[in-house]
Amino acid sequence: MSTPARFQPEADSLDPTDWQAFRELGHRMVDDMADFMAGLRERPVWQPMPAELRAELRQPLPQAPAELAEVYADFQRLVQPYVVGNVHPRFLGWVQGAGNPVGVLAELLAATMNANLGGRDHAPIEVERQVIRWAAEMLGFPLDASGVLVTGTSLANLIAVLVARTRALGRAVRQDGLAGRPLVAYTSTEAHNCVSRAMDMAGFGTAALRLIPCDDDHRMRLDALAEALAADRAAGLQPFLLVGSAGTVDTGAIDPLAGLARVAREQGLWFHVDAAFGALAMLSPEQRPLLAGLDEADSVAFDFHKWAQVPYDAGCIVVRDAAAHAAAFATVPAYLRREARGLAAGQPWPTDFGPDLSRGFRALKVWMTIRTYGADKLGEVIARNCALARRLAARVDAEPELRRVAPVALNVVCFRFEAAGGDLDRFNADLVADLQESGIAVPSTTTIRGQLAVRVALVNHRTRAEDLDLLVDALLAAGRRRAGAA
Ligand SMILES: *Cc1c(COP(=O)(O)O)cnc(C)c1O
Questions:
Q1: Cα dihedral across residues 211, 216, 218, 221: positive or negative
Q2: Each residue's pLDDT tens digit in the chain (486 positions)?
Q3: I need a surface site. Which of 66, 118, 224, 472 has the fewest CB within 10 A?
Q4: DSSP string, 379-399
Q5: Which residues of 405-425 are buried (b: 16+ CB within 10 A; e: fewer)?
Q6: Which ligand 1 atom sits closest to the C-alpha of 155?
Q7: Distance in Å, CA 16 to ligand 1 centroid
């Protein structure tokens, strides 16, 4: 038997004395991760982490070294079995992407390059610029639009709010602050909570965000928007920003984007779209027409880590007018001086387009995923998810114990088990927890028109029809058990 590989650092650096040992351990990790991904369907989607294992992750700061092989064994024992499960084909909760094997390898390469993409003149920044141009092309934006990769749509939406603020008040706002100016913004009642958080973090306060009511399809009502704008103007307030949703978090609804674009143009508002997952539907010829008007936005926030299947995290903001974008963030302290040549060349730098200075090489996993699979294949995943959502809706409609509570615009299906007495909100919440704890499937919940609903979001390239059948069968069985026991 060969002796197990030992990772021994050099006395005067953190590199191994023996790169062969590093290689062997690395190869084993790649092999194990391939086995993990290949065997996902056979595993529980999620299982709670036992208390005694949690306790092992509350150790004091280790002063002494440990064997890398032992640390890896702890990862396999403590972490890998108890992850959130969004890689699994039957993870259908919230709105989470599944990642992909190419992205896994890209993360290894990116970590090895260890590039800092805040700025300067190097190839990783060109990779990010390529990704941003692809994003602009996908959205139907001009190719000289600016953009930057961020942690997620929450931060991308915050960037959009700050760009809209600077557009409304000029660069002076960055020095003077809002100084009590009565700016107000508009979005729908169905918008993601991070829009409201962005208004909070940007210093406007959430009260400066008007939540416009929606129609029966959960889309913002243009008549109600017009009324709110008129009322605010009459009250001496200054409307500056309209945020549409393309794929709402609860039901996947898409606001009337072309109508919103027209209102924004007429009223001189910045038109931003939160298209966290919906933007990627532009890659599917079948779904693309639903997004008509998205290409008229001033800015769009979306995630590569949701429907593009890039491993977490990879959010993106794209802004039509690069100068307006930079006006909100660019500053040049002496230690970040730009030059015409040398490593300090290559401006504008990504740090000119967002709050981050040091930034990792997120762009590589996006670039490698899109190049390897191609945009058409990613679009097919989206079309397949939407077809599965329609199939699931049909099954729900055919089951007498279930009632669907929202239309299916894209990839989200909301329904309730109603063949039970008592508090149906509590019943359905318990049902979802039963299912999650069973490890069979993970839906989540939301509230639709005041009623708690089971929510199934199809975002995962691995999900098949049989997975949804398993979910519904398990849910019906659990519901009948609970209703019988009650
Ligand atoms: C997921 C989501 C967000 C938040 O995005 P993060 O990447 O989690 O920050 C915002 N809006 C919508 C519609 C979403 O689905």
A1: negative
A2: 456 679 999 999 999 999 999 999 999 999 999 999 999 999 999 999 999 999 999 999 999 999 999 999 999 999 999 999 999 999 999 999 999 999 999 999 999 999 999 999 999 999 999 999 999 999 999 999 999 999 999 999 999 999 999 999 999 999 999 999 999 999 999 999 999 999 999 999 999 999 999 999 999 999 999 999 999 999 999 999 999 999 999 999 999 999 999 999 999 999 999 999 999 999 999 999 999 999 999 999 999 999 999 999 999 999 999 999 999 999 988 888 899 999 999 999 999 999 999 999 999 999 999 999 999 999 999 999 999 999 999 999 999 999 999 999 999 999 999 999 999 999 999 999 999 999 999 999 999 999 999 999 999 999 999 999 999 999 999 999 999 976
A3: 66
A4: HHHHHHHHHHHHHHHHHHHH-
A5: bbebbbbbbbbbbbbbeeebe
A6: 9
A7: 41
- Of 412, 337, 416, 342, the C-alpha closest to 382 is 412
Ligand 1 centroid vs 367 CA: distance in angstroms?
A: 21
The percent helix, strand, coil of the chain (3-state, each to 5) is 45, 15, 40
Helices (H) and strands (E) in the chain, counts: 15, 11
Between the CA of 253 and the centroid of ligand 1 the distance, in Å, is: 14
If one residue of 154, 219, 299 were mutated to test the ligand 1 pocket, choosing by the most ligand atoms within 8 A of its CB, it would be 154
Distance 178 CA to ligand 1 centre (A): 27
d(CA 129, CA 467): 38
Q: Does domain 375-485 have CATH number 3.40.50.10490?
A: no
**CATH 1.20.1340, applies to 19-83:** yes
From 151, 153, 273, the mutation candidate for ligand 1 (largest count of ligand atoms within 8 A of CB) is 153
- 115-360 maps to CATH 3.40.640.10: yes
Domain spans, the chain: 19-83, 115-360, 375-485
Q: Which two tokens stand for residue 320?
A: 């039509």
Residues flanking ligand 1, CB < 6 Å = 95, 152-154, 192, 194, 245, 247-249, 274, 276-277, 303, 315
pTM (2 d.p.)? 0.97
Whether 115-360 shares its CATH topology with 375-485 is answered no
Which protein residue has the closest C-alpha to ligand 1 atom 2?
276
